[in-house]
C-alpha cells in the first residue's frame, strides 16, 4: 500500500481471504496449462448462503439479522435460490411513508414506500362530522353531491323519545316513501346523486279549486324552492333534481297548515305497492349517506291510500335490494300471516295482536348490512330494524349509514354511526361507535393515539379514516375522512440510488417529477424510451403507427376488437416509434380512454400483454389461440 506495507496469503480455488483489508476470492485456478492461470475477484464482500440457515457476510461470517437462504434442488442441482428477509426487530418492522428498505444482503436494490395515492391530509378527501349540540341534539356536517356544505341537527332526544328530528321544534325527518309529513317536517327524496333533503316550507288547502292550493318544499342544502303543480284537488307533482314526484295533500281547509297531511311518492319505486326506505344522499366525493331509525309499516295500508305494500326497496350502495313478495298468506291457519321474500328466502310473520313466537321476526341481508323484520303486536304491522355489524343486536335508536363506493373486491362496504340517546345533562346524547362492515369491524384496525388516549382512529380497505373523540366522555363525536377513490400504497423496487416521489395530492410540499409528456408529433424525440401512448389511432398518430393505421369507428373496432364502451391496453415491443416498449392505452371514446388510464394506474397490468376492458375496474387479458 502507500505506506509500504505488504501481505501475502495462499488462497485455494473457490475460497477467499482478506489480504491487507481487502477480500480476495479465487473463482478458478488452472494448473493444467503453461499459463498457470487463475481468476480472482478483489474488493467484493463475501456472502455465504447455506440452505435453511442465516445468511452471513465477510470473512468473519457476521450474521445478517433477519436474512435466511432457501435452496431448491440442493447445492449440486440448484434450480432456485430464495433469500428471505424480515425486520431485524419488532420495534422497526414497518416502512413508513417516505422511507425505504434496502436489501441487507446484496445492498443493490431497495423497496421504497413513497406514500399513499391519497394522503391523510389530501385535498381529495372530504369530511363527514357528527357532533353534539347541547345535551339532547346531534348535528351532522357534510358536502353533498352538488358541492354544497351544510351543518344541521338531525337527531334529538325528547324526554326519552330519541328520533330523527332536525330542529328545536320537534319536527320529524321522514325516511320512508309515501308517509305523512307535516308543515315544517323534513324528508329525504331520491337516492344517491339524485338524493335531496327537503323541508315542507309552506302548505295551503283552499276551500274550492286548486288555484290557491300550495305545497312548497325547500332544499335544505341549496335553499332552492320547489312548488307543487296541482293536477286535481289534493293531487299534483313536484320536480326535484329533474325527476317528478307525486304529491298528495289532505286536510280541512278551515284548519291551519300544521293540520295538513302531505305524502310524496318517489319515481324510483314502481307500482302502488312499492316503497323506498332509508334513501341516500350522495356526498361530494361519492359516499352515500342515509339517515336511519326503526320504522313501522302498515302492511295493509302503507301509503294512506288503502294499498297493500308488496315490496320494500332498501339502498345497498349501488341502487336498491328489495324485500319482495309481501303478501297475505291465505294458506296458513293463523290469520293475519304475511309472506316476505328476502335473501331469496320466503319468511312468514304472524301479525295478529297475539302473534305466535314462531313467527316473531326474521333477519336478512341488504348488501353488507343486516336487517330485522319483526311484528309489533298490532294487526298487520311490522317494524324494520338495522342490526349492528355483528348481525345479532337490533339498533333501536337513530343512526347514520354511510355506503362506500365499490372497492377492488367489488363490494360496497358501509359504516354505521351508532348513537347513544343519553339520560340527562350528566350523560348526554352522543356517538356510541362507528362500525365498519369491512373486516366485521375488527379491532385490528382500531388504534388509540399514543399522544392522546381520548382519540381513536379506525381505517378500512377503501381508505376511510374514522376519528372518534371521547374528550367529553359522555358525549363522543366522530369525524369521517372519506377519499375520492380507493387508497393504495405506492411501492416501488429500484436501485439504491433511485429517487422516487409519491404521486399523491397533499397539503404538504412535494417534489415534482418534471415534464414527461410529449405530443404525438414529438414522439421521435423519445424514440429510445419506454412510451405510454394515450388515445386511439384516430386521434394519436403514434398510436396509429403502433396499431397499424389511423383507424376510426368501425375500422378501429375491426383492427383492434375494441367496440363501443370498451378500451385497449396493449404492449408492443417491436414498433416503429420506439426501440423499447410502446404501451397503447386507448378507448373507443374519450371516456373509455379515461377508464383505461385509471385501470392501468390502479390495477396490476403485465405491460407485455394485451387487455380489453369495459370500466375503470374491469378488464381481461386477451389470449390469442394458435
Task: Provide structural commentary.
This protein is mainly beta and 626 residues long. Among the domains are: 82 residues, no CATH class; 91 residues; 107 residues, no CATH class. The protein has three helices and 46 strands. The strands form ten sheets. An eight-stranded antiparallel β-sheet has the order 13-12-11-10-40-39-38-37, with no helix packed on it. A five-stranded mixed β-sheet has the order 14-15-16-17-18, with no helix packed on it. It has a five-stranded mixed β-sheet with strand order 23-27-28-29-30, with no helix packed on it. About 2% of the residues have low confidence.
What strand order characterises the main sheet?
13-12-11-10-40-39-38-37
State the secondary-structure class.
mainly beta
Distance between the termini: 65 Å
Mean pLDDT: 89
What is the subunit arrangement here?
A: single chain
**Poorly predicted runs:** 504-514
Number of helices: 3
> How many runs of DSSP E, i.e. beta strands?
46
Strand-residue fraction?
35-45%
- Describe the sheet with the most strands: 8 strands, antiparallel
Amino acid at each position: 500500500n502507500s505506506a509500504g506495507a505488504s501481505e501475502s496469503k495462499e488462497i485455494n480455488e473457490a475460497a477467499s481471504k482478506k489480504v491487507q483489508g481487502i477480500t480476495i476470492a479465487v473463482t478458478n485456478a488452472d494448473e493444467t496449462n503453461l499459463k498457470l492461470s487463475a481468476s480472482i475477484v478483489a474488493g467484493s464482500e463475501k456472502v455465504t448462503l447455506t440452505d435453511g440457515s442465516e445468511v452471513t457476510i465477510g470473512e468473519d461470517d457476521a450474521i445478517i439479522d433477519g436474512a435466511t437462504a432457501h435452496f431448491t434442488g440442493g447445492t449440486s442441482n440448484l434450480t432456485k435460490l430464495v433469500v428471505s428477509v424480515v425486520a431485524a426487530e419488532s420495534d422497526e418492522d414497518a416502512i413508513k411513508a417516505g422511507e425505504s428498505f434496502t436489501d441487507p444482503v446484496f445492498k443493490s436494490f431497495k423497496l421504497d414506500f413513497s406514500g399513499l395515492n391519497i394522503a391523510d391530509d389530501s385535498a381529495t378527501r372530504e369530511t363527514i362530522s357528527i357532533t353534539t349540540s347541547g345535551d339532547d341534539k346531534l348535528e351532522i356536517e357534510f358536502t353533498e353531491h352538488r358541492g354544497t356544505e351544510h351543518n344541521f341537527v338531525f337527531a334529538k332526544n325528547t324526554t326519552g323519545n330519541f328520533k330523527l328530528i332536525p330542529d328545536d321544534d320537534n319536527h320529524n325527518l321522514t325516511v320512508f316513501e309515501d308517509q305523512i309529513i307535516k308543515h315544517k317536517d323534513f324528508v329525504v327524496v331520491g337516492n344517491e346523486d339524485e338524493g335531496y333533503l327537503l323541508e315542507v316550507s309552506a302548505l295551503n288547502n283552499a276551500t274550492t279549486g286548486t288555484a290557491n292550493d300550495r305545497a312548497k318544499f325547500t332544499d335544505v342544502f341549496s335553499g332552492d324552492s320547489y312548488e307543487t303543480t296541482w293536477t286535481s284537488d289534493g293531487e299534483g307533482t313536484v320536480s326535484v333534481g329533474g325527476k317528478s314526484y307525486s304529491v298528495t295533500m289532505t286536510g280541512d281547509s278551515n284548519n291551519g297548515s300544521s293540520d295538513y297531511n302531505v305524502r310524496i311518492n318517489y319515481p324510483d319505486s314502481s307500482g302502488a305497492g312499492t316503497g323506498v326506505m332509508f334513501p341516500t344522499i350522495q356526498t361530494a366525493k361519492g359516499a352515500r349517506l342515509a339517515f336511519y331509525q326503526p320504522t313501522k309499516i302498515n302492511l295493509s295500508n302503507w301509503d294512506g291510500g288503502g294499498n297493500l305494500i308488496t315490496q320494500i326497496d332498501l339502498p345497498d350502495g349501488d341502487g336498491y335490494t328489495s324485500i319482495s313478495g309481501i303478501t297475505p298468506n291465505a294458506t296458513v291457519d293463523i290469520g293475519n300471516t304475511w309472506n316476505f321474500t328476502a335473501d331469496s328466502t320466503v319468511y312468514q310473520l304472524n301479525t295478529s295482536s297475539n302473534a305466535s313466537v314462531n313467527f316473531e321476526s326474521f333477519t336478512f341481508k341488504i348488501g353488507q348490512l343486516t336487517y330485522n323484520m319483526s311484528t309489533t303486536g298490532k294487526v298487520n304491522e311490522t317494524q324494520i330494524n338495522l342490526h349492528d355489524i355483528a348481525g345479532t343486536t337490533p339498533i333501536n335508536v337513530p343512526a347514520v349509514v354511510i355506503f362506500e363506493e365499490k372497492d377492488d373486491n367489488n363490494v360496497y362496504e358501509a359504516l354505521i354511526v351508532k348513537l347513544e340517546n343519553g339520560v340527562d345533562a350528566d350523560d348526554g346524547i352522543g356517538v356510541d361507535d362507528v362500525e365498519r362492515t369491512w373486516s366485521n369491524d375488527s379491532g385490528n384496525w382500531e388504534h388509540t393515539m399514543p399522544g392522546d388516549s381520548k382519540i381513536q382512529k379506525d381505517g378500512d380497505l377503501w381508505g376511510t379514516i374514522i376519528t372518534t373523540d371521547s374528550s367529553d366522555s359522555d358525549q363522543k363525536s366522530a369525524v369521517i375522512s372519506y377519499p375520492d377513490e380507493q387508497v393504495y400504497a405506492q411501492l416501488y423496487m429500484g436501485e439504491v440510488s433511485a429517487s422516487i416521489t409519491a404521486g399523491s395530492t397533499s397539503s404538504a410540499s412535494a417534489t415534482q417529477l418534471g415534464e414527461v409528456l410529449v405530443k404525438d408529433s414529438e414522439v421521435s424525440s423519445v424514440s429510445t424510451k419506454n412510451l405510454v401512448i394515450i388515445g386511439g389511432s384516430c386521434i394519436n398518430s403514434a398510436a396509429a403507427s403502433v396499431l397499424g393505421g389511423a383507424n376510426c369507428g368501425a375500422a378501429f373496432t375491426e383492427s383492434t376488437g375494441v367496440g363501443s364502451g370498451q378500451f385497449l391496453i396493449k404492449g408492443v415491443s417491436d414498433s416503429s416509434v420506439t426501440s423499447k416498449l410502446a404501451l397503447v392505452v386507448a378507448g373507443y371514446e374519450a371516456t373509455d380512454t379515461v377508464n383505461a388510464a385509471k385501470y392501468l394506474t390502479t390495477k396490476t397490468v403485465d405491460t407485455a400483454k394485451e387487455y380489453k376492458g369495459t370500466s375503470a375496474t374491469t378488464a381481461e387479458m386477451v389470449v390469442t389461440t394458435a
